[in-house]
Design goal:
Elements lengths: L10 E2 L7 E6 L2 E13 L4 E13 L2 E7 L3 H4 L3 H12 L9 H12 L2 H9 L2 H15 L7 H6 L13 H10 L2 H13 L7 E11 L21 E9 L4 E9 L8 H10 L5 E5 L6 H9 L3 E5 L8 H6 L6 E7 L2 E7 L16
Helix pairs in contact: 4-5, 4-8
């Protein structure tokens, strides 16, 4: 028999005729949910197939202590239970801590608690709980956070469970300056002496949240005609670390955003780096700007684009650079480390 953990809370026994069954077993009355009926050829009548959803309270026959399976069949009870949990701040007798411990080790290793504390103060603990919540549940709905907090470890003082309204107020209170302050602190602690390659890419998302300044009509990568906003992420390809991000207006195209990213990299102190870019950033002005700032780069061209050692020599792209030219069904790789004297006679071999 599968062991079920009872929730330390009372609920009314559902008035669901045809589904609720009570069974007295060794002095305790258990509540079962009838799933179906099957015919027993030996007994020559149908017997119910059911599953336990809780047990009747010994001092009140109209109420019960539910188990976790109860919420599968009566999910509408979740809101009612959330309210009572917030009133008495009760916790489950069993906390699900496996994934939390793994994430806690990552948080400690990268000193995220200290960085966020410098930016958000005491609210940093709740903010980290929300980060862990979003990773474990793969969701970010504030309304469901109290239910998650009920049976998971928390970083807040005495594992206090905050309401969804508190969560909304916290997220709304975080300013752009605080976000930039965190990014500055995060990038400051990285090892700038090490040579790294930064992979940079962007995408966009549809948004129907209302009057938001950066949400505009633009080129949706999903082919939609709805309003969008763009966001980009740069991460250290060698150490697998995100470095910084940026959100910008939906009407701004990728090709025009690269120079802002290069300037931001310089402002964070990254000098010994190379950039890995897709074809959306391919333009002569972008390549010139990377070369002027003495940054290495690897970029894929469009099918109509062309980049050879000869053109690199003509445009004085003397900094160590790489480009990948895709033409037809063959893919060629070109490298320029100060174009050689015989560049005009050099051509890539198919499949190289």
């Amino acid at each position: 028999m599968e062991a079920m953990m009872y929730i330390n809370e009372r609920v009314s026994i559902p008035n669901d005729k045809g589904h609720i069954i009570k069974k007295l077993i060794k002095g305790t009355t258990y509540v079962y949910y009838k799933l179906s009926r099957t015919y027993d050829p030996e007994k020559k009548y149908t017997v119910p197939k059911s599953t336990s959803i809780g047990k009747v309270c010994p001092d009140d026959s109209t109420r019960m202590f539910p188990n976790e399976r109860f919420l599968l069949y009566y999910p509408e009870e979740i809101a009612q239970m959330s309210e009572s949990r917030q009133q008495d701040n009760s916790r489950s007798s069993c906390l699900k801590s496996g994934a939390y411990l793994v994430l806690q080790k990552i948080i400690a290793e990268y000193h995220l608690g200290e960085l966020l504390s410098e930016v958000l103060g005491e609210d940093s603990k709740l903010f980290l709980d929300l980060v862990i919540y979003s990773i474990i549940t793969e969701g970010n709905v504030a309304q469901y956070y109290p239910d998650y907090a009920y049976d998971h470890p928390l970083k807040t003082e005495k594992m206090k469970i905050y309401s969804d309204s508190k969560v909304s107020r916290l997220l709304k209170s975080i300013s752009k300056d605080q976000a930039l302050q965190f990014l500055e602190l995060w990038n400051k602690q990285q090892d700038h002496r090490e040579k790294i390659y930064i992979s940079y890419d962007s995408t966009n998302k549809e948004c129907q949240a209302g009057d938001i300044e950066m949400v505009e009509f633009g080129h949706s990568k999903e082919g939609s005609t709805k309003s969008i906003f763009n966001y980009s992420v740069a991460y250290d390809k060698d150490n697998k670390l995100p470095l910084f991000y940026e959100a910008y207006a939906g009407s701004v195209v990728d090709i025009s955003q690269l120079k802002c990213m290069v300037d931001k990299s310089k402002s964070y102190g990254y000098q010994r780096v190379g950039f890995i870019l897709d074809r959306g950033y391919f333009s002569q002005s972008n390549l010139n700007y990377l070369d002027e700032n003495k940054y290495d780069f690897c970029i894929m061209t469009g099918t109509a684009g062309s980049m050879t050692l000869e053109s690199a020599e003509q445009q004085s792209l003397t900094n160590c650079s790489q480009a990948i030219q895709k033409s037809g069904i063959s893919t060629f790789t070109m490298m320029s480390i100060s174009a050689p004297t015989n560049a005009k006679s050099w051509r890539p071999n198919s499949g190289r």
